[in-house]
Amino acid sequence: MVDKTRNLWFRLYTPITTNTTTVEVSNGAGLPVIFFFHGGGFAYLSTNSKFYDDLCYRLASELSTFIISVNYRLAPEHRCPTQYEDGFDTLKFINNGRIDDFLSKANLKRCFLAGDSAGGNLAHHVALKASEHEFSTIKLNGNILIQPFFGGEERTESELRLTRAPFITLERTDWMWKTFLPKGENRDHRMVNVFGPNWVDISKVEFLKTIIFVGSYDPLQDWQRRQSNFIKKEIEIREKLTRGQSEINRSCPIHPT
């Protein structure tokens, strides 16, 4: 429990020990740690959702890594910037050594951020905030964004073309942004349109190396590509196009975004 007063907590997934991981740990390298943020349009789902529980268990086992799945607060009861504060405070909680006994085989200098959809948006902004903070224990090495949830007032070509895409529609995403953003703000808010009129200059910070997964049938793909083009000027970035929905979304029975 990071903060009981705001019900901020995370679930820790530990890898199943294998010969490979035993050798790696014995060599002193330690296992990496991924801070994972779930999707759901900032309004749905949680770390407790079966899909995300199964996913994180699988990732920990197959990647031989510790997964810290953050259960951040949701809109509309908790609007922006609550979710980003929860994500960043979880990093500080781990940095302060609050669960070191459970991470004895982890190398906290090999930490990564990851998230799908709304969680990808969250990971991007937590990375930006973390770039301005000096941690004493943990070190972030990269950002893994799976079909990150971004947008803007403009209607892009992919949004207008992919009107029958599974899981998400313009009506649904508009509602999600409306319930998430501070009252009176529109979709060109800097947390939504990261390359729009209110953008934040990342050229002056040490931003993380990033990989972005883009689904070929995702209506938001134009926003994701714009994000890729925007930040690749300043950092090393890889963009991976997946056929159809990304693997994470194809296997999810209910995935609003």
Automatic annotation (TrEMBL):
<protein>
    <recommendedName>
        <fullName>Alpha/beta hydrolase fold-3 domain-containing protein</fullName>
    </recommendedName>
</protein>
<dbReference type="InterPro" id="IPR050466">
    <property type="entry name" value="Carboxylest/Gibb_receptor"/>
</dbReference>
<dbReference type="InterPro" id="IPR013094">
    <property type="entry name" value="AB_hydrolase_3"/>
</dbReference>
<dbReference type="Pfam" id="PF07859">
    <property type="entry name" value="Abhydrolase_3"/>
</dbReference>
<dbReference type="InterPro" id="IPR029058">
    <property type="entry name" value="AB_hydrolase_fold"/>
</dbReference>
<dbReference type="GO" id="GO:0009860">
    <property type="term" value="P:pollen tube growth"/>
</dbReference>
<comment type="similarity">
    <text>Belongs to the 'GDXG' lipolytic enzyme family.</text>
</comment>
<feature type="domain" description="Alpha/beta hydrolase fold-3">
    <location>
        <begin position="34"/>
        <end position="229"/>
    </location>
</feature>
<dbReference type="GO" id="GO:0052689">
    <property type="term" value="F:carboxylic ester hydrolase activity"/>
</dbReference>
